[in-house]
Design goal:
With 206 residues, the protein is an all-alpha fold. Helices cover 69% and strands 0% of the residues.
């Protein structure tokens, strides 16, 4: 019964973002800060969901040096024990491309549909206040792996952060833990690629 009520309140993970971004685009007010505020809260969950979507926008290679900054700020604040997200002015006023954002949200529909089928409040101890800083540290490391312009690795930490954020929004500790596990794998992948590139460069110089 509770699950049915939750589904009526939020029938789709994508719908709030699509509707809000469309309305703000028509009003000429679509910015990062306005989008997050209009979603109804400045919680870390929604911030991580929205900001991970930004890193998946169809942008030139190396763009994560910019698009990952909100995630670094958000996870850093979580690590430092902030009660909610506080975006710096330049990030809060950052204008968004509604067409690209919509395209990215729709492209992720296969992922969100699967999540919607399994999401439910459970294992809430994962989000206990005493664990928040540790979670923030783990997420910051994943966001940093995303921030680095390493070939072939960017989408992996972005998806893992998206999955964690969805789990946090819906208070599903199992889904959030899956996101963390994917994120840990993405950090290892990024480190492996970096070490391979460094070894290759050293061999060329030597």
């Amino acid at each position: 019964m509770q699950r049915g009520e939750g589904q009526r309140r939020r029938p789709s993970l994508s719908l709030p973002i699509l509707r809000t971004s469309r309305d703000q685009h028509r009003a000429g007010t679509l910015t990062l800060g306005n989008l997050l505020t209009a979603l109804g809260e400045t919680s870390f969950g929604w911030a991580i969901v929205v900001f991970s979507l930004l890193t998946l926008l169809p942008l030139p290679p190396g763009s994560t040096l910019i698009t990952a900054l909100p995630l670094l700020v958000t996870t850093g604040q979580m690590m430092l024990g902030y009660p909610h997200v506080k975006l710096p002015g330049p990030l809060e006023r950052l204008q968004l491309d509604q067409t690209k954002l919509r395209h990215t949200v729709l492209r992720l529909r296969p992922v969100t549909r699967r999540l919607e089928r399994v999401l439910r409040p459970r294992y809430r101890f994962v989000f206990a206040r005493r664990s928040e800083r540790v979670l923030g540290l783990a997420l910051f490391m994943i966001a940093f792996a995303l921030f680095l312009p390493v070939p072939l690795s960017g989408w992996f930490p972005a998806i893992s952060l998206f999955v964690f954020g969805v789990g946090l929004v819906e208070q599903d500790g199992l889904v959030a833990s899956a996101g963390l596990a994917l994120g840990g794998a993405s950090v290892i992948l990024t480190a492996t690629i970096l070490m391979s590139l460094a070894a290759g460069a050293e061999a060329m110089i030597g």
